[in-house]
Each structure stands twice: as structure tokens, then as C-alpha cells.
Amino acid sequence: MRRKLVLVMVFVLALVSTGAFAQGEQVTLRVTWYDDGNEGAVLRGILDQFEANNPDIKVELDTVAYNVILEQIPQQVQAGEAPDLLRLTNFLGLRGYYLDVTPYLTDAEVYESYFPAGVLNAFRLDGEEGLFGLPLQTTVSGLYANATLFEQAGIEMPTVDDGWDTWIEAATEAAAATETPYAIAFDRAGHRFVGPAISEGASFVNEDGTLTIDQPGFRLMAERLKAWHEAGIIPVEVWLGAGGSYAPAADYFISGQAVLYMAGSWQINNFASNITDTFDWVAIGNPAGAEAASGMPGGAALMAMAATEHPEEVARLLEYLATPEVYAQFTAETLFLPGHLGLPEFEYVTDNEDAKAALNVFAAEVPKIAEAAYALNFYPKFFDAFNVPTRERLTQYLAGELTLDEAIERIQQDADTAIAPAS
């Protein structure tokens, strides 16, 4: 009997060592992620549901700062150190490094039907037809206002039909009357700057695929930004103290130190969570310019990375997250504008009336987006050829290191250099 027990144990160990229990092994997927608000916590809850239904898969969520996503992760991916999945806004910049999950999906046609063709196409290199990721949200840039400060100052708030100069004049008066440090906070990002420039008539992408930076709308917004800094109505730390990186200015608005804030729809949950009932805030949208009242479109996507060793499991996760009911849960709890075409009716999970109103405002901004804004945002080299050079050279202009002519000339040179390898 003892001999039989020993033989059985040896047989079991042999089965384990040869992989006979492979179907019971658990695969770990690593997701590199960033947060604007609570979306990481919401996703974690959804991933817990997924893991319960798929016990052979464990999903690790590695959350990093957005600057890391912009500046460090692309270099790691290009060096062969990619996670299994990656949340990106600059998905154009890493085309060619994504996994085509089409062969691994249960129903690729249904998956593809869920999302706008233009967004899915932005994940592809020219000539590709695969499915490479999951569009998580639609975004549009725009202005916010602290309605309580306007009320306390006894100053009537302008409307979205008014221009930037009217808004800044009113906000400056409100700031002075309420002893608020700043009239406006403005993210240090070319993406935020360019919507107002396009509204003033700028159109950067040429028919031959080149960019032309020197345009009246660009100059006008650069001069406005300079004047705001010289007048001391904008926090200089954002544009002049960011060390060459993207810098959000949300904290100035959340803390009540700025009357206005230029950001976008992705900040709604952040404000609902952190402003709470401290003051009333409203989404304005995009003030009217000479030619349009356009924000910049955008969005985030969860991309499958070609370097993964677990393509089937990656596809299974993406397909789960794309399920209309699951996607609706994510959207409702994060207060995002959805990037999904097949959602059932749902209600956003918030009692914050300011947040509900802001969602409606930004949804109404989407039809107003100018064609020039779409052309630039989906330009393959947008980040390298426009976004980064614009923020860096404008910083030098604001700091007095360059004249505006010199800054525009440098941006053009940077753009031409970034475009040249692709052409």
C-alpha cells in the first residue's frame, strides 16, 4: 500500500512537471494605465468581475503619471519593454507596435461595429486592416468657470458665444473683486492651445501632409497667452516651471485659485470628486473665435501590444471590456463621453448637478469641432511635430528667451524635422 501511494505521488508530480495541468495555470496580464479621475478604481472593479469569470487570467494594473505615458513609455515600447496592454492618448505615435487581436476574438465583426471607423483606423498603419485596441472615451477640450466667484463678484458671466477677450476681461474683474489669485489657469499643452487658435482661423495641415505654423490665429493666441502672463492673471508655474513637460493646471481651479480653467471633458469626474460642494462650477465649452468655436477632439484607448506573450488572453479581456453592458458601466461611473456606438441606455452615476450639466455641455461641443481640428489631432505626427514643439517653444517665448517670430520659426523647424523621417 505504501509503495502504491509513493507511485501515485510520483505520477502526480510528473504530470505537473510536464504541463499536464497547464489548463489550470494562471496567466498574468500587465496593463500600464494613467488616471484623470477615478477611472482606475472603476476599471479595477470591472477587472475583478472579469477575473471571477476567467479564473485563468489575472490582471495587474500598473498606474503611472500621464507624463510617464507621454515621455517614457513610448521609449520603453520601442526598446522591446512593452506591457501586455497600454492606455494611450497618442496612439498614432506607436502604430506598428500593436497586436492585431482579430484572429483571437470570438466575433471580430461585432467588435468592430462597436466603434467609429475613423478611430479604429487611427490605430492602423497605412494598408493595415486589423483591430488593435479598445477606444475608451471621447474627449473634447474646453473652458470651465467658477460660477460662485462670478456671483460673489456681482459680475454677469459671459456666454459661449462671446470671445476669449470678453471672458478674460470678465474673469479678471471677478478675480479682483473676490481677491482670487488668477483669472485663468491653462494647461501647458499644445493640444489645449490649438483649439482656440483654430477657432481664430488657423488651419495647420496642408494637402501635401506638411504643417504650416505661422498663421494669424496661432499668433493671436500666443500673444494673448503672453499678455496674460505679463498681467499676472495666470499662474506662471504651469508654463514656466514645468521643466519642458506637459503640466495640468487643474489644482488651481479645484482649490478656487482661478476663475477660469482651460482643459476638457476628461476633468469632469476629477471636479465632481474633489470640488464637491466647495463652489459651483460650470463647463463653458469653447468661446467663439473669428472662424469657429472649436475645441480639440481626442480620446484614450486601451491598446493591445504586439510584444505580449498572451495574445488570446489579451483579446478575451478587450472583448469583455467592449461588451455594451460592461462598457456602459465604465462610462457611467467615470463620467466620460463614450467612444462606443452600441451602448444601451444608461445614467451617469453622480448626484453632482454640475457634473451632469458639464457632460451635456461637452456632448454639445462635439458637433462644433472644426475640420482643421480633426485633421491636426489625427495627424500621424501630431505629438512630435506640433504638440511638443508648440508647448516648448511657446514656453521660451513666454519666458522672454525667444521672440514670437523666433518661436514660430523654431516650431516650424521642429515640425519639419519630425515629419521628415515619415515622408
Please tell me about this protein's structure.
- It is a single chain.
- With 423 residues, this protein is α/β, with parallel strands linked by helices.
- The relative contact order is 0.17.
- Strands 1, 2, 3, 4, 5, 6, 7 and 8 form an 8-stranded mixed β-sheet that branches.
- It has 2 domains: 150 residues, Periplasmic binding protein-like II (D-Maltodextrin-Binding Protein, domain 2, 3-Layer(aba) Sandwich), CATH 3.40.190.10; 215 residues, Periplasmic binding protein-like II (D-Maltodextrin-Binding Protein, domain 2, 3-Layer(aba) Sandwich), CATH 3.40.190.10.
Q: Can you describe this structure in just a few lines?
A:
With 423 residues, this protein is an alpha/beta fold.
Which helices and strands occur, and which strands form pairs?
Layout: H1 2-17, E1 27-33, H2 39-53, E2 57-63, H3 66-71, H4 73-78, E3 85-88, H5 108-113, H6 117-122, E4 133-146, H7 147-153, H8 164-178, E5 182-186, H9 190-199, H10 216-231, H11 236-240, H12 250-254, E6 258-264, H13 268-274, E7 281-285, E8 297-304, H14 311-322, H15 324-334, H16 353-365, H17 371-377, H18 382-398, H19 404-419
Parallel strand pairs: 1-2, 1-3, 5-6
Antiparallel strand pairs: 3-8, 4-6, 4-7, 4-8
Number of domains: 2
How much helicity do the residues have? 40-55%
Amino-to-carboxy terminus distance: 77 Å
Please tally the helical runs, counting DSSP H or I stretches of 4 or more residues.
19
Q: Under CATH, the topology of the largest domain is which?
A: D-Maltodextrin-Binding Protein, domain 2
Low-confidence stretches: 1-22
Order of helices and strands: HEHEHHEHHEHHEHHHHEHEEHHHHHH
Q: Let me know the CATH homologous superfamily of the largest domain.
A: Periplasmic binding protein-like II
- The outline comes out as globular
Give me the CATH architecture of the largest domain, please.
3-Layer(aba) Sandwich
- What's the alpha carbon Rg, rounded to whole Å? 24 Å
What is the class of the largest domain in the CATH system? Alpha Beta
Query: How many individual β-strands?
Result: 8
- Largest sheet entry: 8 strands, mixed
Structural class, please? alpha/beta
Tell me the β content.
5-15%
Mean pLDDT: 92
